[in-house]
Amino acid sequence: MPWRKMQFRNDAVWVLVDDDGRPVLDGGGRAEMKYREKDAKSYRPGPANLTPIDGSDLRGQLADSRNRTREPSEQANAGQNGIELARDPTALEVWTDGACSGNPGPMGIGIVVIDGEWRGEIAEYLGIGTNNIAELVAIERGVEASLKRIATTARRVRVHTDSSYAIGLLSKGWKAKANQDLVARIRRQLATFPAALDFVKVAGHAGIPENERCDELARIAVERRH
Q1: Catalytic residue among 82, 98, 142, 204
Q2: Is 140 an annotated catalytic residue?
Q3: Catalytic annotation present for 129
């Protein structure tokens, strides 16, 4: 299937489309988007957030669309949401994301920590590496940041990420074929963590405010190299 150039929140992006130029939607009604056509990482925005570069009416196109979906095997990998948890107002919420300009390329991470009315944000440039490294390091830094807010071991921490790769390695027992030292280091960190910790899989670029903010922080870190 071809990719079509569109706009996402004033950024030029590439969107997977059918032969008629309409975005291909997954089972959750989301499109597939990349910031560069050759990027390995893709995102899942709602079609309402996409605007064709040529100014055509995307809503009208979607109304006529057959809403074609990916093959079942592809859709299972792309659309799984992981753990679905009821919101716990007493939990410490950690949101993380990694960004990479090229893969490999300059890496950045964005983290948002929410503790009741308190909120903290982190943007950090990591140097040259891959998107998967950025996603893992974002979680590592987010867990470190949460330690400063935990008063007792009874406190629960929830780490939100859009990386199925990271969740698989850190909570589902996947074997690390790459980044083995980094994965082992984070696993040791989690094994000694003094509180209950859950991983929550969220859809990337689906309009979730904290996930979008983490992505923005990560991209700012890459752009400014700080």
Answers
A1: 98
A2: no
A3: no
Answer yes or no: 162 catalytic. yes
- 75 and 96, same domain (yes or no): no
- Round to whole Å and give the CA distance between 224 and 14: 24
pLDDT tens, 106-157?
999 999 999 988 999 999 999 999 999 999 999 999 999 999 898 777 889 9
Reported as type and span, the H/E element at residue 200 is strand 196-201
- Are 121 and 145 spatial neighbours (Cβ–Cβ below 8 Å)? no
Q: Which of 135, 140, 210, 212 is catalytic?
A: 135
Active site (annotated) includes residue 226: no
Helix (H, G, I), strand (E, B) or coil at 96: strand
- Is 198 an annotated catalytic residue? no
Same structural domain for residues 128 and 69?
Answer: no
Is 120 one of the annotated active-site residues of the chain? no
Could you tell me if 54 and 165 lie in one domain? no
pTM above 0.85, yes or no: no
The separation between CA 211 and the C-alpha centre of its own chain, rounded to angstroms, equals 7
Do 33 and 102 share a structural domain? no
Asked if residue 101 is part of any domain, the answer here is yes
Residue 118 lies in a domain: yes
Structural domain for 199, as ranges: 92-224
Prior bond to 104 cis, omega within 30? yes
Q: Please check whether residues 70 and 172 belong to one and the same domain.
A: no
